[in-house]
What does this fold into?
Amino acid sequence: MLCIGQSSSSGLPSKDTPMAEASASSVGQNTSSAEESSILVSPREQPEDVALKEPWKSLTQAAINKIRGHSINSLENLSCEGLSGIESHLFERILSYLAIDNLSPLELKDLFVALTGIIDLRVTTYKDLTSAVPALEEKDPELDQLLKQLSKFLRLGLRTLVLKCDVMLGGLAKKELEGTDAPPQMAIIRLVRYLASIIDEGSQPVSESEVVAVWKECLQILSNGKLKFLSGGHVCRATQTQKRLFITQFKVHEETKSGRKVDLLLRVGNLEVLNTEVKPNDDQSAGDKQYKKNIRINHTTFQTAARRGLELPPMLPLDVRGLCAIVCCIKQASDNILVAGPACSNLIVLPSSKEDLEKFLCGSSPQIFWQYVVCLFLLHSSVLSCVTTKLCLL
It folds into this structure.
C-alpha cells in the first residue's frame, strides 16, 4: 500500500536492481512466448521492503489511528523538514486530512490515495505536473477516411452496415491470404461491426459484468487478441503482496490478507501491468470512489514491477462509467511519488443506438480508442524488452 519514505533497500529500485530470477526453462529461449513466460510470480517480499523512515512512519501511524477511531498524538509534532518539495506537498496534504474531525467517504478515499504516495491531480495541483499524453489526441488520416466510409454505410441501416463490414473484412482476409499485409485499421472495422451488432440485436449491457464484458471485447478486438485481459473478479496478486507487507509493518492483524478483486486486468505473461475498474452507470460518487480505488491498485502493480527491476512507462488505466470512459495517466514524479490525472480531455463514448453510432463514427472516440490501444502495445513491448534485457544479463 505504501511507498513514500521507504528505506533505501526498497522503494522504487535503481536501474541496477536485479530482477527476480527467471526459471531455468525460460533462459535461452528467444520466442515472444518464452519472454512472456519468464515474467514469473514475484518471490515473497520481505517485510523490510516497506520499512518506512521518519517522518512518514509516524504520519502513517497517526492516519491508521484516526481511521480506526483511536486518539492521535499532537499533529504539530509531525514536521516535513528535510523532505523534497513534492514530498513536502504530499505530507502537508495528508496532515490536512488528519486535521478534519469527521472525514467524508470521499475524503477518506483521498487520504488513502495520498498515503499510497500518489498526488491525484483531480483533487489537487502541484506546480506544472501534468499527466497529458499528446499521442491520444493525434488523428490518423487513414482511419478518418475509413470512418467516413462506414458512416455512409450506416445511413443505409444497421444491418447493411454489418453486412458491408463483413464484405470489407472478407476482402482484406483474401488479400492477406495472397501475402498482402492487412492494414492495422482492419481492427476498427471489426469493432464497428461488433458495436452495430449489439445495437441491432438490442442487447445493451446493463449490469457491471455486462459492461466489463463489452469493454473487454472492444479492447481485444482493437488489439487483434494480442493483449491479454483478465476479467470476472480476478484477485490482483500485487494487492495481496502489499496488504501482507502492510500488516507486517504496522501489526494490523485483524485486517484480511486477501487482495482486491479487479474488473479488467492487463498482464504480460504473469506480470500485472495495468488495471481498469468499471462502474455500470455514471453515478458520480460511486465512480469517483472507484477511480480512487483504481489508481491505488495500479500503484501496487507499479511497485511490484519495480521490485523486480522493471521500470514501467506511464500507466494508462481507463476510468469507465457505463459506456463512457476517460483515459487516465499514472506516472512517476519522483523516486517514491506518483502523479495521477486525466490523460486527455475527450471521452471515449461507446454507442447505444443508431444515432449514437453515427456520432461515434463522426466524433473523436474511435481515434482516441485506437491511439489508446497503440499506447497499450507500447507498454506491452516495453515490458517485454526490459525482460529480454534482464534475461541476457543472467
Notes: Residues 1-49 have pLDDT under 50 and may be disordered. Strands lie at 118-120, 228-235, 261-268, 271-279, 318-321, 324-332, 338-342, 348-349.
